[in-house]
Automatic annotation (TrEMBL):
Residues 1-22 form the signal peptide. It holds the Pfam family SPOR. Keywords: Signal. Residues 50-65 have a biased composition (Basic and acidic residues). Residues 47-68 are annotated as: Disordered. This is SPOR domain-containing protein. Residues 89-169 form the SPOR domain.
Amino acid sequence: MKNIYVLFGMFLLATACSPKVAKTTTTNYQEDISTNREDFVQLKAQQEAKQAEQQKENQLTKEQDFSESSAITTGVDEQLQDFAAANAGSYATKYTIQVYSGTSRDRANEIKSEVYELLPEAKPKVTYVQPTYRVRIGEYYSRVDAYGLYKKAKSNFGRAIIIPFKVKLGDQSPAETTQD
């Protein structure tokens, strides 16, 4: 019985390791796919016709009176006025850099002069809200925009800070601002 298992195992091993011969066919396979191909000569002619048509349209629009564009501008202006009227009582947040805050007017003016010397692009303003004088530079709509000038000011003025403040929309003067 043991011999039968050994013989059977050898038979399987011999048949599994024998080389297989792939069958080859000698028939020639051909398929006509010309019906699926695009005719590039015809496509090129269509593209040239489209380009010629577009050039004619472009010339016609150049020659036309552009009164329609002014009508669009008028519509946009009306929408902007409506938007401004709807937001008339709203406030926007702006940011400035405060380099001095104290009770001495002379010191505030000294700091303002130093800012002019050290940071010529900054336009310092001295404000007075009783009993404090403040020297502030720049007005920005985002804290990120203010950060560049803040770094320069901080290196020269150790107490420099970024201050947010509110501006009433529609007002152009900074005198109409309210502090946070």
